[in-house]
Amino acid sequence: MSTLQNRRIQISLPATGDEEWQALREPLATGWLTQGPKVAQFERDFAQRHSVRHALATTSCTTALHLILAAMEIGPGDEVIVPAFTWVATANVVLYVGATPVLVDVDPQSFNIDPAQVAAKVTARTRAIIAVHLFGLAADIDAIAAAAPGVPIIEDAACAAGSAYKDRPTGSLGLAGAFSFHPRKSVTTGEGGMVTTNDSALAKRADALRNHGASISEEQRHAGPRPYLLAEFNLLGFNYRMTDLQGAVGVVQFAKLDAFIDERARWAAFYRDALAKLSWLRLPSVPEGWRHGWQSFVCTVDPERAPMTRNAIMERLQSQGVSTRPGTHAIHMLGLYRERFGFGADDFPNARDCDRNTMAIPLHNRMTADDYSYVVRALCAL
Length: 382
Ligand SMILES: Cc1ncc(COP(=O)(O)O)c(C=O)c1O
Hints:
By secondary structure, the protein is α/β, with parallel strands linked by helices. The chain is 36% helix and 14% strand.
């Protein structure tokens, strides 16, 4: 390919710049660095955009999920249903609280939990279902709820800030949602997360738990007239507070979310048109009424038709300056889960195949039109 020289198209690159840099000035100047007014503003903006009453910033999506399970008092003896194809944190948080993750296979087109397989996994011990909106596409929440009536749904919306399901925002679809601001997500605070919920009692408990279980926040304590007062600690909590430095960056980044998603959606449509002729590559699709957040553009390589194996394709593209990554992993094939639960690769065949055959190609807000065309040419030339 003629334009190969020094080309390097990353799988993802955060779209941060001078505005984010400037936003750091105020907390650094005032000296209020831990959770404070910037985090509070980020939370208000986030809650409003996702149509929820409460948004609580955390250190990551992993800690947001942990907080939700802890606030629900899920623990030993309880079961939580999770999809078999997702980032490991979705299942790990269930182990953190001493409960058992119960895996359900996924739908290979949406990559999300297959609602048709949920009902068979519900038992008297099932306390929740973690529905993952993988890569930014919402899981079929209505079908999941119908398969498990009365079981609370927790949304793992790590990849799905700004996404929607049947015109309803992600994060507002179940009992609670958890989001990520890791740099591979559409908007970032370096690391960071958010809990969303309309349940005020759950929010109150999660709020205390993220701050060591304290009955009042640092801000309330500092503003009050009685300096001798310490908070009450009646719960075993954690320190999962987001810093105000991150909050300040989050406010600026979050204001750009919809523009970022719109741009990603335009390039996703470009990919889908330009790559449709590759019979060996299955492309992601978006059901009517869903808004895909396009955290990643994840394709599936058909091993029967592809010119070479998925890994050989990824190596070839890498050598041409195009970064790719597997979509994510099958939980039951990871050592921790294999050994603890005795899983075999074939136990969840769709998750197994997604693990082996998915491939994310570059899609982010720092790519140029030329970059997108280059990726298409590289794929079509295989
Ligand atoms: C589906 C899913 N859940 C949870 C997480 C964990 O997010 P964080 O890195 O913010 O803890 C990720 C991160 O990639 C994810 O993709």
